[in-house]
Here is the input.
Amino acid sequence: MKQDNLKAARQLQQEVEKKRWFDRKIKKDAVLHLRVESDILDQIKAEAAAREMSVSDLVRCYLVERFSATDLNDGSPGFLLATTAFTDVVTLQDSRCAVCDKSLPRGENAQLACGPPPPARLVCDNCYANIQSQLEEQHEFSQGDE
Here is the structure.
């Protein structure tokens, strides 16, 4: 019974992610050809299959996320546009904050920015606090306009 519920939850999550991904697609105006080692290609194909995406969509998503304007007008990193939630995590391996590039050693508390592709990002507690205060200021400002 639990296995069926887990399968249904995963399927629902994938459908939601697909819908959001297709809604975000924009017209592409250039083609990029590249060569990679076969083991890297195997990893890319496995990741694409796990996300039920095409290889080109997965690679495009990573490239857009990496090379598009990394900061929004207010200085926030661009990946926050796709972030739908944060969750408390403890790092299992040395990592870096996606906002300030601070080192997050194994066992450190951090926040995981979750949402549809691009993949989730780790955010240190200081950057998370700054993001939250910016959101609260925006909320107070928008309520003042009413």
Notes: Residues 2-22+32-144 form one domain. The chain has one domain: 2-22+32-144. The first strand starts at residue 85 and ends at 90. Residues 2-24 form the longest helix (23 residues).
